[in-house]
From TrEMBL:
GO terms, biological process: DNA-templated DNA replication; double-strand break repair
Entry's family note: Belongs to the DNA polymerase type-A family.
InterPro entries listed in its UniProt record: DNA-dir_DNA_pol_A_CS (IPR019760), DNA-dir_DNA_pol_A_palm_dom (IPR001098), DNA/RNA_pol_sf (IPR043502), DNA_polymerase_A (IPR002298)
Protein name: DNA-directed DNA polymerase
Catalysis: reaction(s): DNA(n) + a 2'-deoxyribonucleoside 5'-triphosphate = DNA(n+1) + diphosphate
Domain DNA-directed DNA polymerase family A palm: 120-327
Broad class of enzyme this protein falls into: transferase
Coiled coil (UniProt feature): none
Gene3D superfamilies noted in UniProt: 3.30.70.370, 5' to 3' exonuclease, C-terminal subdomain, Taq DNA Polymerase, Chain T, domain 4
Molecular-function annotations in GO: DNA binding; DNA-directed DNA polymerase activity
Amino acid sequence: MQKRIHELAGIEFNLNSPKQLAEVLFERLQLTGGKKTKSGYSTDAETLENLMNEHEIIGLILEYRTLAKLKGTYLDGLIPLIDPKKDRLHSTFHQAVTATGRLSSSDPNLQNIPTRNEEGRLIRKAFYPTVSDWRLVSADYSQIELRILAHLSQDAHFIDAYKQKQDIHRRTASEVFDVPFEEVSSSLRDKAKAVNFGIVYGISDYGLATQLRIGRKEAQGYIDRFFEEFPAIREYQTKIIAEAKESGFVTTLFQRRRYLPELSSKNYNLRSFGERAALNTPIQGSAADLIKIAMIQLQQEIEKRNLKGRILLQVHDELVCETPREEEELFKVLMKETMEQAIQLSVPIVVEVYSGDNWYELQK
DNA sequence: GCGATCAGCGCG
DNA sequence: GATCGTGCTGATCGC
């Protein structure tokens, strides 16, 4: 693949160097340069995708990047970290690193093992239980951040949607685009999903426009419609920012604080960043509080019942355990119940459970 | 030679 | 200028 790319470029160069790649694409091949970095033209995936029709080299570069990432980080990168005595890989979880209260994981990071693309997802086959014939059981919170937003804002429509077990993205699409719930197309649902996620992060019209590849005016229209239909969310967000500016910090459901000195900056960008963090932290941080409480309770249940199975990993909204086959069904029930009942919100908390022989095969 | 930084990209 | 929170790799910078 590398050879073919060099042939198409008409020159040999280091394909891993964004600087050299930019020179080849934007000077030698005269492709249309777009976004800039500190030092020159960007060659990131988004930029390259916009050049797909300009040159056949682009698709190959994107494919090379995907494979180089997988090989470098997840094959060559993980193998030396396997403890040869135990044939086992151990990560370190950090409890006091992030600003929101999440855990982080390093050496290696096991919270970013691929899942979004099939090629990468195959890496998960390498993660399987310590004992042959044991099973992996995983449980993840369904849309926990949007449920926490419903709880914090007390928005009647959001709470109603979750109480009725409605598909929230479809509900948002129905409200924002003013179409009957049953008639929402998948493309409208995708747009609404981007709006819902954007709201959690404090998105701008520009950010949403970029994400959806639409105009800024149109994006602003969606945001306006969202807040018209879910007025309590706007009121909640306005109040959070005002309180944060007054006190200097925001809090999570269990009173974890994040100080945000950026909120009083004279620099617009820094101040805006502070405002977005003020909106996101109570949500992301409360979800972190929740799963930590659930982890403590689950561990207590495991010890109380003298179970052989054990917790292996936490991935922000997901727990992964390994269990003897005889404990598989019990773990599924315990994990679901413990995680769903760890705290009470104004909306139901829903946990999906899966099991399988390895981290790739997990099924309901 | 080595640590820091940059660009890019993996995850929730 | 432009959506939050992370960690790792390879290239490059700078001492």
